[in-house]
Amino acid sequence: MLDSLHIKNFRCFEDLTIPSLGRVNLIVGKNNSGKSTLLEAVSVFSALNEADDKYSVLNNLLETLSHISKSRGKDEQRDTKIFGNNLNENNKKFHNGESGFELTDNDKKINYKVFIKKENDNKFKFFINEFDFKINTSTLEIEKPEWMPSFNANENDIDWDEIFSEVEERLISNDNHDLQFYGYSCKISPANLLTENELSELWDEIIKRNKRKEVLETILIINEDIIDLDFVYISLEDDTDADMASIVRIRNKDKPVSLKYFGEGVRRLLQLILTAFQIRKGGSLLIDEFENGLHYSIQEEVWEKLFKLAKELDIQVFATTHSEDTVKAFSKVSLRSPEEGHLISLGRSAYGENKGKIIAVVHDENDLQYILDTGMEVR
To answer: How far apart are CA 374 and CA 287, in angstroms?
Structure first.
């Protein structure tokens, strides 16, 4: 779990330091202050931190950058959308004349440096710590590094037993391998509602982990009459494909109904909880625009559940919000567990050597109490 974070040269962050982080962190700030970018930086950090060899370094980083680029803009904009100022002519002195970014905790116990050297309009050479490779940023195609094996050969030529024995040795060497190697190191619950197909995939993983009861108990926050939930296949009209539909059993009602019957609140809460259960021990849950679909009257209960769940699953939560109701609900819960919850404001400095740069302010218990007592708006 990250206890601090230093981000240098990543998109809109020139040099951002967050001196302390909690198990549950709420990020606030005006539009374009970097709230979503902070979630992206944590996702890249998690992807690199999860990797235990150079193949994983490459694959994890590219998967994460691909996700960021697709969520940020069209394919032809990927290079600038991913790296922001990193490719700007005014910002080429990061490392030996190359642009790049750095992610580390403040004690530099974990440190990742990514350097990018532009070769032409679409091709860039990447240096990730001691690993290097070339990439076409418009297609995210990789030029095979010398250390990457070719899998074009006949499968019979590959010693699969040796590969799997290496993986097994890594598992055995970890005391908590059942938890450590399950699920994702980082997963985002987006601001928009997931489709029923996407919820169904998450639900299947819950069934495998025998966590059905815990999830159902959580959504009772919104509707206490829900008895059970499942997903079933429904055939489309042309019979060429199938789709998934939710079915919910309700107390004192003969026929099941769809999740849509309950409105956005139940679906949003279910989405948050299902996503949390996909994350491995020590990983990060990222929540974009926490308040979407959740009525202000239940947000305190939802935060209480998230605080409890984060501790039980041993995961770290990063959420963003535009809502003052969300800030107040979070502050109430955080004051009951000040070591667990951190409220962090992002904004551009108006003076001093950091003028114009985005800086972070971590609010202490006195600040949280003042926010609740006065109704002060946090920006």
So the answer is: 27
Instruction: List the structure tokens of 214.
Output: 């815990």
Alpha-carbon span 16 to 353, nearest angstrom: 13
Query: Which DSSP helix (H) or strand (E) runs through 235?
Result: strand 226-235
With beta carbons less than 8 A apart as the criterion, state whether 61 and 47 touch: yes
* Residues 116/98, Cβ–Cβ less than 8 Å: yes
Question: How many CA atoms, within 13 angstroms, populate the side-chain half-sphere of residue 231?
Answer: 19
3-state secondary structure of 241: coil
* Ordered alpha helix ranges (H), the chain: 35-50, 54-72, 78-83, 160-172, 177-180, 196-208, 212-219, 264-276, 299-313, 324-336, 365-374
Count of residues in the chain = 379
State how far the Cα of 101 lies from the Cα of 116, in Å rounded to an integer.
9
Phi/psi at 299 (5° precision): -65, -35
Bridge-based pairing of strands 184-189 and 279-287 is parallel
pLDDT digits (tens, 9 = 90+) for 41-97: 898 888 777 766 666 666 677 677 666 766 665 444 444 445 444 444 434 444 455
- In 10 A of CB 330, how many CB atoms? 29
Phi, psi of 29 (to 5 degrees): 160, 165
Q: Lowest mean pLDDT of 94-108, 240-254, 332-346, name the range.
A: 94-108
Query: Would you say 372 and 331 are in contact if contact means Cβ atoms under 8 Å apart?
Result: yes
Closest CA to 148 of 55, 235, 253: 55
Q: Which of 121, 101, 95 is nearest to 40 (CA)?
A: 101
Residue type, 314: D
pTM above threshold 0.70: yes
pLDDT above 80 (res 145): no
pLDDT of residue 77: 45
Contact 283, 316 (CB under 8 A): yes
In whole angstroms, give the CA distance from residue 54 to residue 25.
Answer: 31
